[in-house]
Design goal:
By secondary structure, this protein is an all-alpha fold. The protein is built from nine helices and no strands. Pfam families: TetR_C_33 (PF13305).
Length: 205
């Protein structure tokens, strides 16, 4: 690696750290390229030497957030355990992460990317990795389902949990208190697991 490459990588790392810090402090909606580069102590044009635009930079931050969430979901994993217990663990781990990093979490869903700009395949793959934990936990409940059907069920479950968490943390009129939120996540997952077991065809033999 040349000295020029090293300087570029160093600047990129500093920009990412400054951007992450600003999002955690003020939210992604307040993000401004000029403010970030002021924090870094570099000219505004320096950002565009290492990132295509602000959207590209936010994608990098979101990638780091997904990596953190992945670690949280992996902690205490029970791949061969009871599906309900494992799904509950995942749901509460998600809630715990959101409470710890609320603004980084919001950036995953709230940043308005430029119209017509596609989400890169590598970022979609990162999102898919997180759903794989749900698929793994759901599979024993209905092993006859295809991978596509299990993926759809995992997306539905994630969407439901995400909606419960988002509504409550936004303190909307149907939101739940912190203690009730944990209990209702557990109860909701229990109901879904029970329903999947009831609709599963009886095993032969």
């Amino acid at each position: 690696m040349t000295k020029r490459d090293e300087k570029r990588q160093n600047l990129k790392a500093r920009i990412i750290e400054a951007t992450e810090r600003r999002i955690e402090e003020s939210g992604v909606e307040a993000l401004r390229a000029r403010d970030i580069m002021s924090d870094v102590g570099a000219a505004l044009g320096g950002l565009y030497n290492v990132f295509a635009d602000l959207d590209d930079l936010v994608l990098q931050i979101n990638s780091r957030t997904l990596a953190r969430l992945k670690v949280e979901l992996q902690t205490g994993a029970m791949p061969d355990g009871d599906p309900r217990a494992e799904l509950t663990r995942l749901g509460l781990a998600y809630l715990r992460f959101v409470r710890t990093h609320p603004r980084l979490w919001s950036a995953l869903f709230q940043h308005p990317f430029a119209a017509g700009k596609p989400i890169p395949d590598w970022h979609r793959a990162e999102q898919g990795e997180l759903l794989s934990y749900l698929i793994l936990a759901l599979r024993p409940l209905q092993p006859e389902l295809s991978e596509a059907a299990l993926a759809l069920r995992a997306r539905t479950l994630f969407g439901a949990i995400h909606g419960i968490v988002e509504t409550s943390l936004a303190e909307r009129f149907v939101g739940l208190s912190e203690l009730d939120l944990e209990r209702e996540i557990e109860a909701f997952i229990g109901l879904m697991v029970r329903g999947m077991r009831l609709e599963a065809p009886p095993r032969s033999g």
